[in-house]
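Hello Y.,

Per our agreement to keep a running log of every chain we model this quarter, I'm adding this entry. I've kept the format consistent with earlier entries: sequence first, then predicted structure.
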Amino acid sequence: MQKHLTTRRFLLPLGLAFALLNPWLLDGEPVRVRHAEGLVHGFLLLRSLDGKIVAEGDLTENAVGNIVNAHLVYHFKDGSLHEETAVFSQSHTFHLLKDQLVQKGPSFQHPQDTLIDAAKREVTVRYSDDDRKEKVITDHLDFPADLANGMVLTLLKNIRPSEAPRKVSMMVATPKPLLVKLVITPGGEETFNIGDSQRKATRYDVAVELQGIKGWFAHLLGKQPPPTRVWILYGAAPAFVKSEGPLCMDCPVWRTELASPVWPQAPSQEDK
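Predicted structure for the entry above:
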């Protein structure tokens, strides 16, 4: 029994854990496009909460017409890899077309490769069990219109604080594919500095909604995760500032921050 439960402690993007499937999960209103995505290349650092760098990352986006291809990758110091590629449309509302999440290496107890193909209504999960044997699960599901895999940061830039709390759907692997609801709640404004100037970002708590006896059962098994916190700078061009949360069920809470390039220091005249 314990081995079975351990195998089911699986991985989720943005630190979001799983809940059990309920009929109410199939209903959802997609997020309206207020700020269309375009050409992006951002540098990221993944840190422990004590400031130690555990991974370096890149976030790239490229839009062709109303179709966006978003790619997020983290290369860990221990050789692990977290990589997610999402393809979505942004015509009036955001709509997921395809998403693939790959997690492997020492930082991830249960490596996985999860592919969501909305056009085919198909989810394929490749994972390793406790004996490190690779297994494949393929399932066919009716996806809700507000499916948010690979788009959570994009959606947060388009949800106004006055509209929250807001719920969206997420497909997770436990390892069997299941739909859960994410509850997005604003946590107020917090001040940060850019040089000598101060700015304010809105903090959001993104948590899985666990209801009734099933929620109690998940909590009893230690599967109630902390909410992922995301800070968004609003204005004419909303921007991601940072986030804090685990990338998998067995991962610690990590902090994602924007990074600036660091150039080699030019030799001084005295060194010449």
